[in-house]
Amino acid sequence: MATNADKKLVRSKSGLRIVATSEDGRSPFELYEPPWVPDKECHECMKCSTRFDFMKRRHHCRRCGKCFCDKCCTIKIALPRMCFVDPVRVCDTCAAVTRKENEFFDKHLKTLTNGADFFLSGSTIEENNEELFFCKISQDQRTLQFEGEHRKHEPVELSKVDSVQILTSSADDQALTLEEASPIAIGLSIKYKDRQSDQQFLRMSITNLPNKKASQLWTAAMQKGARMLYESKSSETT
Ligand SMILES: [Zn+2]
Ligand SMILES: [Zn+2]
């Protein structure tokens, strides 16, 4: 998925993939291919319990690696998160998850790389509600970048993000219709490790913005992205 790094073609039993040549080029949203449940450990479909025999063949889901009958593992779908070139066979559960993820890649990731305005404050930068920062995810998906009018802020490596918290306001001082009564995002708070591996936090606020729309969309997209970042991180350690 990395767009700027060198890439190579690799073939596994799941299919053909285009991956970065080095760890440094990997997208932090990427998932590793799961190991397949070995045939000898799997005598029946892991969903409907149909016994496998010479007529009932096993199929492995490319996303979870589990073993299913033909009926429970029919869908072929694009799986960019694992860098497959062609659509691959997945189970019903993984098909639903993958559709959501693909919506992130097709839509929300573009919002994040297009960028939006925020006010910054945190452990590395003092609050200043006069100065806007234009914040975006880099084209190679690896860093969160900040362009201030006067100041600079070191980019945040997305693989070093520990948590993303959406800050909300119940806005109970405003007259609200019923539909609007849900909490309103007023920004986000990011915990991450800097280049020296020191823990830092950054608050990206939209409270005082004259035009909030783009920044609210960006915040919502980042909330979706954060979930995928956590999942990618845990897939690395297992
Ligand atoms: Zn089945
Ligand atoms: Zn699956």
From TrEMBL:
PROSITE patterns: ZF_FYVE. The keyword Metal-binding applies. Keywords: Metal-binding, Zinc, Zinc-finger. Residues 39-99 form the FYVE-type domain. One of its GO terms (molecular function) is zinc ion binding. It comes from the Eukaryota. This is Zinc finger FYVE domain-containing protein 21 isoform X1. It comes from Lingula anatina. The gene is LOC106153234.
